[in-house]
Amino acid sequence: MKEFKGICVAMVTPFNKGGSINYEQEAKLVKHLISKGIHGILVSGGTGEYTMMSLEERKKVITTAIEASQGSDVYIVAGITCNNTKETVELGRFAGEAGADFVLALPPFAVHVSNEAVMEYFNEIKRNTSADLILYHFPGETNITFSPESIVEMNQNGLISAVKNTTGMDHTMELIIMNKHNPGLKIANGFDSNALSALACGCDALLNSGSNMTPAQYVKMYELIQENNLAEARRIYKAIMPLLMFQEQNGNTESGLCKYVLGLQGIDCGIPRKPIPEISQESKEIAAKLLVQAESVL
């Protein structure tokens, strides 16, 4: 099993003009990201527009990424969250059998369920997949908060091997301290706005959307933090942060902006599936300028 660490890209899903998935372009995008030095790739996740895809499409997206990454050291994380336990478990089982290293799942949140039901949900996923399970902790989206103590306990009970902690740095820091740097629980932060502080404070990984656009810069920043060169890492982050933060400004969406910027870099990923909008012409012009600034740092 590969180690969950470093920069993991929450990869977009390329679409053709008619809205179908462009699997050939997906494979090219995987290879492009690998060439930039990234450590892992999440497919079938939120930035990948999983809510806009059928179960069969998600399965093919997962297998395409696994096949395209063969021969590399990059690990594959499969997003498996569905609206019901049956399909989530089915996708988790499939991903493990297909060769994904990890599966990532949000807790059930469409309707209120008890803590016991949440734990049974995760246990059923774990029982039915050969991949390691990553908890996707995103209170801002689910309105469900796991305490640092409960996340550590989930790891100690053998349920999860890692957490994508898409929360503020206060919770992430509490989790790092509570975990006591136990290498058995890998901690990643999911916010681009927390990237530098998360790495500097001891997170094992970053799992975010912005690394679609600036993968080499993110990798370099990660390497510099491992070398305790915070000043140089800060210089890189300062250059890429305006583009990263532009993802949710001016009416932009993460998938919309990332796909447009990837297109500027020669990787045509189409536009998001409706109802997710394409970014505006004004945003395109701003993004192009911000990309020049981001690329000037390396």
Question: Please, could you describe this protein's structure?
Answer:
The structure is a single chain. This protein is of the alpha/beta class and 298 residues long. It has one domain (6-229): TIM Barrel (Alpha-Beta Barrel), CATH 3.20.20.70. It has helices spanning 23-35, 55-68, 85-98, 115-127, 139-142, 148-156, 169-179, 195-200, 215-226, 230-245, 254-264, 281-295; strands spanning 6-10, 40-43, 75-79, 102-105, 132-137, 162-165, 186-189, 205-208. It has an 8-stranded parallel barrel with strand order 1-2-3-4-5-6-7-8, surrounded by 6 helices. β1, α1 (23-35) and β2 form a beta-alpha-beta unit. The radius of gyration is 18 Å and the shape is globular. The mean pLDDT is 97.
| Order of strands in the sheet with most strands | 1-2-3-4-5-6-7-8
- Please tell me the total number of domains: 1
Strand content: 5-15%
**Spatial extent as radius of gyration:** 18 Å
What is the level-2 CATH architecture name? Answer: Alpha-Beta Barrel
SS-based structural class?
alpha/beta
Unreliable spans: none
Q: Terminal Cα separation, in Å?
A: 32 Å
